[in-house]
Amino acid sequence: MKGLTPPASNNYVFLLNLFAKVLHRTLNTQNMQTEKVATHIIDWLKDYATNANVNGFVLGISGGVDSAVVSALCARTGLRTLCVEMPIHQAENQVNRAQNHITALKTQFANVTNILVDLTPVFEQFRSVIPRAQENSQLDLSLANTRARLRMTTLYYFAGLHGYLVAGTGNKIEDFGVGFFTKYGDGGVDLSPIADLLKSEVYGLAKFLNINTEIINAQPTDGLFEGSPSDEEQIGASYDELEWAMEMDNREKTIDNFSGREQEVFTIYKRLNKANRHKVDPIPVCEIPVHLKN
């Protein structure tokens, strides 16, 4: 994917990027044995749950493609699958997509149930009792992460209540590339069915699983901020660009190998990958020398 965004008019850049996204997704989908991948994940989920002696899965449904794919895979295990909506000042289009997806799943699978937990009052109560951080540039991000952690707590409530596993919805780029998730929020899960799949590969699975086109065509967003900025707006690069950067990084390329938009994207990827290692790597443990303990 050489020359991601050459100097050109805005219209030309838009069309070129759109073509690159479609081509990238098409090539990845063609290379991946989608049906076999789906079967592999379903079998893996079923085996893991059986060995763990649990009753099924619980996960949050956001109206995005990742949670739609994971819930569809969990449903196909035949085990109980609880889909939880947890809006916090959520945009109406996100709520509608989530509800439409759940309705479609329940029509197909008798093992799928759902529940709506409106966490907006809980979030507002939390915000009302904590000390206000005046003129702090990290306030919005801190509150956004609080939303994700309230949702994690809610999922584990239901997991404990019913003997379920919390199924994660992070993909490879988010979980291992740029760390685009909340630590102990949407990153707090029991198992990760699609964390070895790139975003483009998740879209391939979504089409195979007949996920609603409104979800497939929606701009990815974490829905954690007022106004719901897209993931691309927050990160500064699209998932297709980040997949390219991840591949270049795996080939041990450096910033000096690129120029223009390619260099910009690669710089974004490397910066986020480094800054978010604390999310990806195991929690560091201070090991005490034996002679200090004896």
Tell me what the structure shows:
This protein is an alpha/beta fold. It has one domain (22-232): 3-Layer(aba) Sandwich (Rossmann fold). Helices cover 55% and strands 6% of the residues. It contains 14 helices and 4 strands. It has helices at 10-31, 34-51, 65-75, 92-108, 120-129, 139-162, 172-177, 199-208, 213-216, 231-235, 239-250, 260-275, 277-280, 290-293; strands at residues 56-60, 80-85, 112-116, 164-166. Strands 3-2-1-4 form a 4-stranded parallel beta sheet, sandwiched between helices. Helix 4 links the parallel strand 2 (80-85) and strand 3 (112-116). Helix 1 crosses helix 8 and helix 11 (239-250) crosses helix 12 (260-275). The longest helix is centred in the middle third of the chain and has 24 residues, at 139-162. Mean pLDDT is 90; it is low at 1-15.
Say what the CATH topology is.
Answer: Rossmann fold
State the domain count.
1
Task: Report the C-alpha radius of gyration, rounded.
Answer: 20 Å
Class inferred from helices and paired strands: alpha/beta
**Counted beta strands:** 4
Strand content: 5-15%
The arrangement of helices and strands along the chain is HHEHEHEHHEHHHHHHHH
How do the strands line up in the largest sheet?
3-2-1-4
Report low-confidence residues grouped into runs of 5 or more.
Answer: 1-15
Helix percent reads 55-70%
Q: Do you know the CATH architecture?
A: 3-Layer(aba) Sandwich
Instruction: Specify the CATH homologous superfamily.
Output: HUPs
Look at the structure and give the CATH class. Answer: Alpha Beta
Oligomer: single chain
Overall outline: globular
